[in-house]
């Protein structure tokens, strides 16, 4: 029998969350962001569940090829574009769209031997200062792309740094204004909004929105829960109690003996550790569900195990089900306790954790 840990992926929750995006963005088309193995949820099953999306975005060329070979017919955008001329050959062969964000890519594009046309998303840096051309520089690049016969559709794009935070509205407005001041008159399709901007700033929706985290049922906003936004969790990571320990006062638990019992306690050992993707820095007190009841992690997380307080959960025993995050235990709560964000927990799920898919239509 395999170790009892697994991640259950609720495909109907993915569809539901896509419908929430649609509700917020009636006129924009939806490009579902499924990079990093669909934020750890499984690339192909996620793309299949989200087949009503208008396009997909990934970073990894091999993921884009897998999507095409699995029959995905919608546009597929490479969010960092290409890294070599050889990538361009694959992009053209599989009819992929590409971001262009620096001059070297332009040079590769214009010296490519192939004659097939290509769709490009011209990335404009409006303040994130990661990828993209400054607006005025982007304007010059736009002119060279427009007269190039190898380019078919041009879409203008930027990315917000602070849309999740209600106190950083000015930052978003500045990015928006820097973008549209230069590009509004060009009447080209535009793509700006990630999940947070979709929910908080309708004025950013434009032609294409790019939701990621909200599709997976986690809140992109620091001041609202997923449930308040009508989102349903897609991933539930579950395991079981595999051992029970009875502590007397002053007994310690785990590596470093960091947790010490102040009274007699019952401790459950759970088959889940940092090699499964559970954050090692989650402190004592991080929430967890055992037999559906809320309790806390105690002591250090080890590679393959963690320990939970069962003192008040009398009916818990070896084999009792444990939920690490997901259904009835929002991932944001676990992430906050561990000093991280839901994105990191999703993406860190280890390949040794089996992914099972389920469809819960009637939730
Ligand atoms: C360029 C770009 N657009 C959209 C997204 C989706 O963002 P979110 O998951 O916050 O919706 C990402 C994710 O990092 C991104 O890099």
Question: Could you explain the architecture of this structure?
Answer:
The chain has 2 domains: 11-216, TIM Barrel (Alpha-Beta Barrel); 235-358, Beta Barrel (Lyase, Ornithine Decarboxylase, Chain A, domain 1), CATH 2.40.37.10. The protein has helices spanning 11-24, 35-39, 43-49, 61-69, 85-93, 103-111, 135-146, 169-183, 195-200, 331-337, 342-348, and strands at residues 6-10, 29-33, 55-58, 76-78, 97-100, 118-123, 151-157, 190-191, 208-209, 235-247, 252-253, 259-260, 265-270, 287-290, 293-296, 306-309, 321-325, 354-358. The protein has 363 residues and is of the alpha/beta class. The strands form 3 sheets. Strands 1, 10, 13, 14, 15, 16, 17 and 18 form an 8-stranded mixed beta sheet that branches. It contains 11 helices and 18 strands. The mean pLDDT is 95. It starts with 5 loop residues before the first strand and ends in a 5-residue tail after the last strand. Bound molecules: pyridoxal-5'-phosphate. Residues 33, 79, 159, 194-196, 210-213, 220 line the site of pyridoxal-5'-phosphate.
Label this structure with key terms.
18 strands; 363 residues; 2 domains; 8-stranded parallel β-sheet; 28% helix; 8-stranded mixed β-sheet; TIM Barrel; Lyase, Ornithine Decarboxylase, Chain A, domain 1; alpha/beta; single chain; binds pyridoxal-5'-phosphate
Query: Architecture of the largest domain in CATH?
Result: Alpha-Beta Barrel
Unreliable spans are none
CATH fold-level name of the largest domain: TIM Barrel
Bound molecules: pyridoxal-5'-phosphate
Please state the structural category: alpha/beta
**Number of distinct helices:** 11
Corresponding CATH superfamily of the largest domain: Alanine racemase
What is the ordering of alpha helices and beta strands?
Answer: EHEHHEHEHEHEHEHEHEEEEEEEEEHHE
Helical proportion?
A: 25-40%
Query: Kindly state the mean pLDDT as a whole number?
Result: 95
> What is the number of domains?
2
What is the molecular shape? elongated
**How far apart lie the N and C ends?**
30 Å
Biggest β-sheet strands, sense, barrel: 8 strands, mixed
Strand percentage lies at: 15-25%
CA gyration radius, whole angstroms:
23 Å
- The CATH class of the largest domain is Alpha Beta
């Amino acid at each position: 029998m395999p170790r009892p840990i697994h991640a259950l992926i609720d495909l109907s929750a993915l569809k539901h969350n896509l419908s929430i995006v649609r509700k917020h963005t009636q006129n924009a088309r939806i490009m579902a962001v499924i990079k990093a193995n669909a934020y750890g949820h499984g690339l192909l099953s996620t793309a299949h569940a989200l087949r009503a999306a208008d396009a997909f975005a990934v970073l990894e060329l091999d993921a884009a090829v897998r999507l095409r070979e699995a029959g995905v017919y919608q546009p597929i955008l490479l969010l960092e574009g290409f890294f070599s001329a050889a990538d361009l050959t694959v992009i053209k062969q599989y009819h992929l769209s590409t971001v262009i964000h620096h001059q070297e890519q332009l040079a590769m594009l214009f010296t490519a031997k192939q004659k097939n046309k290509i769709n490009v998303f011209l990335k404009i840096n409006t303040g994130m200062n990661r990828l993209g051309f400054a607006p005025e520089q982007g304007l010059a690049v736009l002119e060279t792309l427009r007269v190039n016969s190898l380019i078919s559709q041009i879409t203008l794009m930027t990315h917000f740094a602070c849309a999740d935070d209600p106190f950083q509205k000015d930052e978003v407005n500045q990015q928006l204004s820097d973008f549209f001041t230069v590009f509004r008159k060009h009447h080209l399709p535009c793509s700006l909004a990630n999940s947070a901007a979709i929910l908080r700033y309708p004025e950013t929706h434009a032609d294409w929105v790019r939701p990621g985290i909200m599709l997976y049922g986690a809140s992109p906003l620091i001041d609202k829960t997923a449930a308040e936004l009508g989102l349903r969790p897609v991933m539930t990571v579950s395991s079981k109690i595999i051992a029970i320990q009875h502590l007397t006062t002053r007994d310690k638990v785990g590596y470093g003996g960091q947790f010490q019992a102040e009274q007699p306690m019952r401790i459950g050992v759970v088959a889940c550790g940092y090699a499964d993707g559970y954050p090692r820095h989650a402190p004592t007190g991080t929430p967890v569900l055992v037999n559906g009841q809320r309790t806390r992690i105690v002591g250090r997380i080890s590679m393959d195990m963690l320990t939970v307080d069962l003192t008040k959960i009398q009916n818990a025993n070896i084999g009792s089900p444990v939920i690490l995050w997901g259904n009835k235990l929002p991932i944001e709560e676990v992430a906050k306790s561990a000093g991280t964000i839901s994105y990191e927990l999703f993406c860190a799920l280890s390949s040794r954790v089996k992914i099972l898919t389920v469809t819960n239509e009637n939730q």
